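Technical note accompanying the year-one report. For the benefit of new consortium partners, we illustrate the data format agreed upon in the data management plan: each record pairs a sequence with a structure-token string. No post-processing was applied to the example shown here.
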Amino acid sequence: MKSTMLVGKTALVTGSTSGIGLGIARSLAEQGANIVFNGFGDAQQIEKLYTDIGAEFGVQTAYHNADMSKPQEIEAMMAYALEKFGGVDVLVNNAGIQHVAAVEDFPTEKWDAIIAINLSSAFHTTRLALPGMKQKNWGRIINLASVHGLVGSSQKSAYVAAKHGLVGFTKVTALETAQTGVTANAICPGFVLTPLVQKQVDDRAAREGLDNDAARRALLSEKQPSGEFVTPEELGALAVFFCSPAAAQVRGVAWNMDGGWAAQ
């Protein structure tokens, strides 16, 4: 039986053309939400992606190619969602990039880009979505932080700083909306087998002369006690829970789904 929990609602998911964002977009569409997709990729493939998901779940879908490092493009995307669907009811801030280097070697332009896309973009989408959510007295803001919003790892200064910042921003947003029907929460995944993490696996396999499975196990064994990747589908199910009536008083949490990483 088709779920109808989010019928009539619109979800905007940044960075949703692959990986975690796509998994969450699918889960919200399955609940009946219209979806505004955002992200980079081949234009024809993206069109097929959002058209297929719309057909599969019987929802309306659209796409905006805003570069999440540029506030003006974010403003254009939010205006597009307003014009097309009457606003954003569920905002999922998922867009993110990564660069790995020691602090003293970290390229300043990479630092600026990571802070802009992983942190500042969430501020811009949130400030633009909140007036409409408050007017309707219903909204869900879900920020994809990371276990790196809770703990550090060497060589990832910009990413860790941005994700810690995103957790803090989520708490403030939750406090400011505490007496409304709008909630704000963060999801903090551990290793998820996205293209970003697969690249780390491939690099490790090449560097250490391992096959892909052995490289995956080696990567997980260092951080994630379960020895298993988190899946986009599991993260999507958590996002759906945050949208449900049962989560009405879940406000300002940083909910880690990390196979035990932060429990150590």
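Partners are asked to follow this layout when depositing records. The two ends are 40 Å apart (CA to CA).
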